[in-house]
Amino acid sequence: MAFLNRKVWITGASSGIGEALALAFHKAGARLILSARREDELRRVQEQCGGPISTQILPLDITQASELGEKSRVALQMFGGVDILINNAGVTQRSLVKDTDLDVYRKLMEVNFFGAVALTKAVLPAMIEARSGQIAVISSLVGKFGTPLRSGYSAAKHALHGFFDSLRAEVSHYGIKVMLVCPGYIRTDISLHALRGDGGLHAKMDSGQARGMPVEQCAAQIIKGLVRGKEEIYVGYKDKYIVYLKRFFPSVFSRMIARSE
Predict the structure, then answer these.
(1) pTM of whole model > 0.90?
(2) Domain range spanning residue 141?
(3) For the domain that residue 146 is a member of, what is the CATH number?
């Protein structure tokens, strides 16, 4: 009953973790606003989530910061506010630093960091006025450590932690909670859309991704974290314990991660 009639806005809702979260929140009785660039895919997810009575779609490109203020005003009017914002939109990378164009790094930061910041800032005044709300940010385990081939993605996710940890400290007295979610390998198609160094698509399913946690299980753990008011959660199989390996055995971690792909 924790989410009955709660108004939830999810970005990146057309596939993967975002889609799974939409289905989970729908089953929990929430009213949904689903955003992504692909309107046709949003409509597909909308139909699975009860149609327009309980689920509205709001197509947007998270990199178009000048449009996010107006998009947020529309979202706030759809059901009369936003109780929970899920910043899920993101894109990953598969390229070495020496081979990666600076424009690719800028795009990774725009999608993964600045988009989440801009949307949160647009929704935040309404949450402050209501003196309640939850903001969940889908980061990554590589927001806690860096790995080969993901330098820009990891940098953007590290930036999320600095920003949203600071935000949490600033807004806790308004009754607003902030949760960072750090997934490891989750069985989605994110690696298919990963950026190469020249900006093209990786277009391959990574073996770790293919063996990863089912997306429905990931969504269930995120929901549980929100219910419990967690500040940060790690989601995955054995890969999530790498966070502790880095913390307590940094030299072992460094040797291991240098051999990874």
Answers:
(1) yes
(2) 7-258
(3) 3.40.50.720
41 exposure class (CB count in 10 Å sphere: 0-12, 13-18, 19+): middle
Q: What is the pLDDT of residues 192-232, one digit of tens each?
A: 999 999 999 999 999 888 999 999 999 999 999 999 999 99
Q: Which of 153, 234, 237, 244 is catalytic?
A: 153
- From residue 47, alpha-carbon distances to 35, 93, 193 in Å are 14, 31, 25
Residue 93 lies in a domain: yes
Residue 1 lies in a domain: no
Neighbours of 197 (CB within 10 A): 18
Question: Which amino acid appears at position 4 of this protein?
Answer: L
Kindly state whether residue 32 falls inside one of the protein's structural domains.
yes
Annotation marks residue 153 as catalytic:
yes
Burial class (CB in 10 A: 0-12, 13-18, 19+), 101: middle
Cα–Cα dist 233/240, whole Å: 10
User: How many distinct structural domains can be found in the chain?
Assistant: 1
- So what's the pLDDT on residue 236? 96
- Quote the CA–CA distance of 25 and 171 in Å, as a whole number: 24
